């Protein structure tokens, strides 16, 4: 299939692009490289550097795009709380422009990177897809808005759309891993501490209603997550918008994650108690029964130890700031 991958120079988009190339698809990556890296675009995919508003339509027309996988987005919860305008413009505005370009070019399929953050503070855990959508931060709110737009575009224009709601993605695949210039995610930060690139990790809040008081998340290997995208591509149905949660169904607290990182790396990881981070729900754990039943998705690397070990192998192979390390305070 001829596929356009927006954000394919980023962490998750590059892994999916690599798997698409491996599966024999014709892949064009559209990325403005604001947070992505040109060298993360896999050999065999073509990179077009630029924005969705400016380039998506021309790229689709030139490629004869049959399907879009849409990763390009801002994705940092605390930043979204501080700068919601960036998120409404960058996430919702660009996505609407992408949908319009698809309509003009007659592109019939889209797989969209949605998020567990659309559920806010859930009533039921593990969270099913029919749980109320009540985002607790602007990041989740913008992703929920795009999900709603996809439902309308499927109804109005007959496209087949799939939203994949990611829980906490980590690990690495084929030399592709997380390397954000400013890292905010727990596992890469803890691994930077283990490497001696940071003094300590701050634990944001120990007074949540969870067994040890720290937030509980469902960690999923990026390669398993990526495989779900290839399945979703095959399962787009004209006129339908389908939604799937992607997680392992097991929750780990911040403290448990840090302990697994200590065990995997063999390094001490000093922690510092800090206040709650704005926008963080206490517990996010997925029910992914629908993805298993309807997509035939089976996560093959569900263990947190393996996820952390793959992330650690990537981080140790990418020295210094290129791995997203912050300078020592
Ligand atoms: N977290 C933390 N210290 C850090 C980074 C994250 O305690 O330096 C916590 C964060 O508050 C949340 C969990 O780890 O409860 C996962 O955060 P992350 O940013 O990795 O993913 P999110 O769940 O926000 O998508």
UniProtKB/TrEMBL annotation:
- Give the top-rank taxon of the lineage listed in the UniProt record for this protein: Bacteria
Q: What is its EC number?
A: 5.1.3.2
- The name this protein carries in UniProt is UDP-glucose 4-epimerase
Q: Gene of origin?
A: galE
Q: Which organism is it from?
A: Streptomonospora mangrovi
* Residue ranges of domain NAD-dependent epimerase/dehydratase in the record: 3-247
Q: What does the UniProt keyword field contain?
A: Carbohydrate metabolism, Isomerase, NAD
Q: Which family, according to the similarity comment?
A: Belongs to the NAD(P)-dependent epimerase/dehydratase family.
Pathway membership, UniProt = Carbohydrate metabolism; galactose metabolism
Q: How does it assemble?
A: Homodimer.
BP-aspect Gene Ontology terms = galactose catabolic process via UDP-galactose, Leloir pathway
- Which cofactors are reported in the record for this sequence? NAD(+)
Gene Ontology MF term list: UDP-glucose 4-epimerase activity
